[in-house]
Design a protein that fits this description.
This protein is about 35% helix and about 20% strand. By secondary structure, it is α/β, with parallel strands linked by helices. The chain starts with 7 loop residues before the first helix and ends with a strand.
Length: about 220
Amino acid sequence: MDFLDFNKEVWEYIESHTSREDPVLAALNRYTHLKVVHPRMLSGQVQGKLLEFISRMIQPSYILEIGTYTGYSAICLARGLKNGGNLITIEINDELASVSEKFFAEAGLTDKIEPVNGNALDVIPLLESGIDLVFMDAEKEQYSRYFELVFPKMKPGGFLLADNTLWDGKVVYEKEFNDTASIALRDFNKMINENPKTDNLILPLRDGLSLIRKIRE
């Protein structure tokens, strides 16, 4: 349970009253917790369902994910794609590729998801413009740079979702937490909040999820 999960009983109630994971996501969740380091990085049932809902509401044709991990969030997001749409997901750790690609296949989404191994800072400049939806969950120290690179490639009216923007509440307590990630996330949150080209909202879900809408070029 995370910093923002109210208390154990409330969070268990939320989970028990949220649609259950399908067999593929449940198997991926279990595999990640048994076999992969830092399983807390997995989106999980509640956040995964939110990502799916957002994608289904937007009905994007072109999604970019920065940080694949084991592929849970990519599967959730890809389920909202329009027919013929695609999701590009970037992961720097090539050891995770066999895991994510296995579960993409089991979810029947290999024709919609394009995995890319590499550093997002190098990959994003090579991508085509016209992105409808971005999910960012990678190196926190690079959030501002990822945004600077991807924002010009987003459609006006497009959305960017940034995970972990409350960072266990550390962004609030500047004197107590001055690690590089906390500083970077504070700077990112400030930059977004002061950007006249965006609307933004931080949801207190798990570790903080920012919803950012591009309102103009």
